[in-house]
Amino acid sequence: MVDEVVEEPVDEVVRKPGGGCATAVLSLLTLGFACWAALPVVELDVDRYTVALTALAQYAVVVGAVLVLVALLLRRWLNVLVALLATAALAGTVAPRALPDQVSAQGEPLRVLSVNAYFGRAEAAAIVEQVRDRRVDVLSLQELTPELVAELERAGLFAELPNRVLHAGPLADGTGIVSRYPLRELALVPRTTLAQPSALVDLPVGRDVEFVAVHPIYPMGADTTPVWARDMVALPEPSLAGRPRVLAGDFNATLDHTRLKDLIGRGYVDAAGVLGEGLTPTWPSGWTAPPVTIDHVLSSGGVLPADYEVVDVPGSDHRAVFTTLRVAG
């Protein structure tokens, strides 16, 4: 008698959740995310779209984490790997900005306040109040109009800070430097789209400081990105002679943008970045757009930041940046 062979039923292939459609959609999303995360690394912020995506790079970390979670739930392991690697690489770049460096800032204090006045609409009395309360030594004013200059004078700014180099203009064109200490106007920046004046601040103790009020053009217009890039490149490098130099203002750039990274790489220190405040947003002051950090105080030549804060100024679409720098003797 021949034993009958009984065949065991073969288990059906376990299908992944969502099928091929989910795989295709998730793969496209993962590829797009990887390209976004790579923008700050490959330095391709060359038009207004890539400039905008680069400005939002810190938010890509959150998007990446969500993609990793979705890919895990759908068991798409290649997507998990790609999204995880891109997220980790980007987080490794972004996260240190929230961690203070070990900086030993010594020397005479120089208190710097930078205010974007939003086409001159910022409240003059509020600016003067900040100057008085914080005992500001040097004030960088962007989008400084002739009308705002008159309002600031009536509010008592020039009684507090009597020295000035003002290039006032209509709308966003004007920029100025106002100081407690004597100023001698310099020409550290060639002519740019918006005024970017510079001056030597004559400190009573220690070395004098070269100061630039920064405001390159807004890069998100239809044809302004290359102009913004030229305006950024026009900003001076750290002084070869080692003279202290400070750049303060609205750079219209985050720490992920190529031109600002290049500038810092040549020897400047970003006050917010080294004090663990590099992710503290400065624009917009409301919720009209995802908040980003585009206002900065950079220093070189033995000038290091000791503290940093962003403050609201009524009437402005930016938050003002205040930092105490220490100028080594």
From TrEMBL:
Q: Which stretches are transmembrane?
A: 21-39, 51-74, 81-99
Recorded hits in InterPro entries, A to Z, give: Endo/exonu/phosph_ase_sf (IPR036691), Endo/exonuclease/phosphatase (IPR005135)
Q: Which domain of life is it from?
A: Bacteria
Residue ranges annotated for the Endonuclease/exonuclease/phosphatase domain, each copy included: 113-318
Any idea which UniProt keywords this protein has? Endonuclease, Exonuclease, Hydrolase, Membrane, Nuclease, Transmembrane, Transmembrane helix
Q: Which Pfam families match?
A: Exo_endo_phos (PF03372)
| Gene Ontology MF terms | endonuclease activity; exonuclease activity
Give the matching Gene3D superfamilies: Endonuclease/exonuclease/phosphatase
Q: What is this protein called?
A: Endonuclease/exonuclease/phosphatase family protein
